[in-house]
Amino acid sequence: MAQAWRQRRQASLFHPSKPNGEGMLVLGIESSCDETALALCDDGGEVASVISSQADLHALFGGVVPELASREHARLIGPLLDDLLAKAGLGPSPLRNVDRIAVTRGPGLLGCLLVGVAFAKALAMSAGIPLIGVDHLQAHLLAADLGNDLAYPSLGVLISGGHTHLYRMDSPVDMTVLGRTIDDAAGEACDKFAKMAGLPYPGGALLDALGRRGEADPDLFPRPYTHNDNLDFSFSGLKTAGLNWISQHPGAVFPAGSTPARERLGLAPQELCCAAASFQLAIAETLCIKARRALALFRPRGIVVAGGVAANSVVRAAFHALAEEAGLPLSIPSPALCGDNAVMVARSGWHMARAGRCHGLDLSAIPRGRAIPRDWKPCPA
Ligand code: KG4
Ligand code: ZN
Fold first, then answer.
1. What is the CATH number of the domain that holds 356?
2. Residues of the chain with pLDDT under 50
3. Ligand nearest to the CA of 30
4. Cβ contacts of residue 124 below 8 Å, gap of 6+?
């Protein structure tokens, strides 16, 4: 990948003034939760990327510990940049090749975001490179645009550990929220159900693995908050229904204190595999009910599904069926790009750069629950 980039660079696609924003090389930095990631993207997409996950550390506590997460980001981010630049083979003064520094500014855990934002500002200031603050949720959706031109407007379905949003996507840099969860996110519900079943954090992917070995019962769990005419979600009732099922089936879960290692998943009781399949079906169908409603609201030319939960096999199958029913193209990132990563941040920054947008060194980090301000400035030529 990095070699292909060097060939593109040598082929003079690049020139110093870049009047049309062409040939931009963008460094992306992601530190909003428990993944420290950096990536370089240019017009052709990913040039190089590195990622370090803290999942095993937080699994010891059953969920992300914000203080530990930000300390880990601060420890890892510098060495990871060295790794990235070495991997990309950018030569002796690697940052001189970088045209923009894009960093996730929110939403996320504030302490974690601040590590990435402060690091990005230091790089931008010392190397004289314009800074771009990226909306993490919109970046997730743009992971679907790598190697696959999206049609606009599109319906964007963002499903992650902390958020469940429906978007009208008018362009890569103009997106409007149509609906959102009023309580738990889809990923949060999966993680809680998995945790109560005795699986380690984060349980979403393990639930997926269990569900593949069971048959879904469509009547086992509700399709919550669908008997209304809005586009919002509420997954807390489904989470409670899942927890009730677990308390009524003590023999079907892993006993407390014996959290199974991933390789012990094969010992899971069949009843639990069926419940896992049913729980995911309830999530997938609930998402599709609201997405179908949003499709009727405007006339999108495509559907984009992204975020950690978009890696889920039942969710992917449900949206493939919905897209076919609607006669629209479906774009979902590869499972590796559904979760948090910096390629999506660099890609989002690349689109912002193309639109002539960037931020000053006063860029603020925005925690979960607060809107991302539209405070970009025109970028210096
Ligand atoms: O987008 P993401 O990596 O981080 C946030 O921005 O939140 O999403 C993480 C979430 C977690 O809840 C995780 O359990 C869930 O995505 N997840 C899955 C799968 N892979 C990750 N949920 C269901 N099935 C999966 N295969
Ligand atoms: Zn995310």
1. 3.30.420.40
2. 11-17, 19
3. 2
4. 101, 130, 131, 361
